[in-house]
Specification:
Blueprint lengths: L2 H12 L11 H4 L18 H10 L12 E2 L20 H10 L3 E2 L6 E4 L5 E8 L2 E12 L2 E12 L8 E7 L5 E6 L5 E6 L5 E5 L2 E3 L5 E3 L11 E6 L8 E6 L2 E5 L13 H11 L6 H15 L7 E10 L2 E9 L5 E8 L4 E9 L9 E6 L7 E8 L6 E6 L5 E3 L6 E5 L6 E6 L5 E6 L21
Parallel strand pairs: 1-6
Antiparallel strand pairs: 2-3, 3-5, 4-5, 5-6, 6-7, 8-9, 9-13, 10-14, 11-12, 14-15, 16-17, 17-18, 18-19, 20-21, 21-24, 22-23, 22-25, 25-26
């Protein structure tokens, strides 16, 4: 038996007891992604070869000294194989300094370092934009025999020396489109989008929720021909983090939206007053409501000044405190949010854009995901009746309507299969229809509110 066969069999025997090493970046670059459910279990999977390689680098399996490093494969290489773009592309001295300044990274357990293979670093973008200097680099990291390439953004003030550049964000080396946001002290935002060379990039700087219940995006800007790069200096804005759009070989990729309200509220006093006002004499836990409203406003990206918030319902969902409220910039559409949980672990159950007209009379329903594993779709639907409703019914397409039993808080529960279309209907005391709303499908949580069908009431 040759050494290759012995090594393969050894890996196969040990793979089941080999712990999968974490990505090298989380402790260094952990970022909260609030537009996703806060309580969500991530399940990692690894191939036999990768698990064996991790076992090798952690010392569980003997490894010959001549064995090469094993790299995690990238899904796409169009971006990392593109040439360097930006105003610093010809400044070889500065780029050499930047290459030397990129540090090795300690792993999450503190047992070693992910070494930067400096001879393999590729700079993909380097430029001064507005008040910032931004750099995008392909950075190969290695610990033992495990190689983990990353796309890393660095930024500093315009004209910064390499040693003054700080890490900004990172992503998988297989990404085809990436973006970086810089926020200056005066509130000015600098946004850069980089895609493969030959593609057309653009930036949509903002949006609005129309009174008709539609998401309307601003016109694209900032594109630089077919270079795959778009740059924009944006004045202080209250809207979502800008959206980068890249067209490449018939495909359209989007990147960058996340959500933030960039209004002038440095001390949090405006948010505090909004929460106090919306809570009123309700005995719902103040800190928990503050957490829910804070998360919703960050996601909605609407200005704080003059904002209208209506607490529609409070109660219990899955044994945890829950709240339903609406958010509206005057003259615009209304966004409904439902949350349940605690300040440490909560779920955003509903994000729905609605027309402004008649919003107070609408019944609101949302599908429930699994409590233990937040991505599992269930057949459970939570229904909240409007104040004027005497009763609520559920209409599943192709079936006879059924009454929804409401508790003293106006909450009911219904059963609708994930692939079934349904509506909830609010009735007056005489049985006539007050208003109706669709039960939205399971989709849209990774998009902007109002973009996917699962986040808007109108078709």
């Amino acid at each position: 038996m040759n050494i290759e066969s012995m090594l393969r069999e050894g890996l196969a025997e040990d793979v089941q007891r080999v712990p999968v090493a974490d990505d090298p970046w989380p402790s260094f670059a952990r970022r909260e992604v609030r537009h996703r459910r806060v309580k969500r279990t991530r399940i990692a999977a690894a191939s036999l070869v990768l698990a064996g390689a991790i076992g090798l680098q952690s010392g569980l399996v003997p490894m010959p000294g001549w064995a090469p490093g094993l790299a995690v494969a990238s899904m796409n290489d169009e971006l990392i194989n593109s040439p360097l773009r930006g105003s610093l592309a010809g400044d070889t001295a500065w780029l050499d300094g930047m290459r030397a300044a990129i540090p090795d990274l300690p792993d999450e357990e503190g047992s070693g370092y992910w070494k930067v293979r400096r001879d393999k670093i590729r700079f993909l973008y380097a430029s001064d934009v507005g008040a910032f200097r931004m750099v995008l680099a392909y950075v190969p990291l290695q610990m033992g025999v495990l190689a983990q390439p990353q796309l890393v953004w660095y930024q500093g003030p315009a004209g910064a020396a390499p040693e003054a550049m700080d890490w900004s964000s990172y992503g998988d080396a297989g990404e085809r489109v990436t973006a970086n946001l810089g926020m200056a002290p005066d509130g000015t935002n600098v946004f850069v989008v980089v895609g493969p060379a030959g593609s057309r990039a653009a930036i949509r700087p903002g949006f609005e929720f129309t009174a008709e219940g539609r998401l309307k995006m601003d016109e694209p800007m900032g594109g630089i021909g077919n270079t795959g790069v778009a740059e924009a200096v944006l004045e202080p804005t209250y809207s979502l983090e800008p959206l980068g759009v890249v067209e490449y070989e018939g495909n359209v990729d989007e990147v960058g939206f996340g959500g933030s309200f960039n209004g002038p509220d440095p001390t949090g006093e405006i948010l505090e007053s909004l929460v106090k006002k919306v809570r009123g004499d309700n005995d719902f836990d103040y800190e928990l409501l503050h957490t829910f409203v804070d998360s919703a406003l960050w996601r909605a990206g609407v200005p704080l000044e003059g904002l209208l918030i209506d607490l529609r319902w409070t109660g219990v969902v899955n044994g945890s405190p829950a709240a339903l409220f609406t958010v509206q910039e005057p003259g615009h559409g209304v966004v409904a949010f439902a949350f349940h949980g605690t300040t440490e672990s909560f779920s955003a159950d509903l994000e729905m854009l609605m027309p402004a007209a008649g919003v107070e009379d609408r019944p609101i329903a949302w599908r429930m995901r699994g409590e233990e594993h937040g991505d599992i779709e269930t057949d459970r639907v939570t229904v909240i009746a409007p104040e004027k409703a005497a009763s609520v019914s559920l209409e599943i397409t192709g079936q006879a309507p059924v009454d929804v039993v409401l508790d003293e808080t106006g909450k009911g529960e219904a059963t609708v299969e994930p692939d079934q279309e349904a509506s909830v209907v609010a009735h007056r005391a005489d049985g006539s229809e007050l208003s109706r709303s669709p039960v939205l499908p399971f989709e849209g949580r990774e998009t902007m509110i109002g973009e996917a069908r699962g986040t808007r009431l109108v078709p």
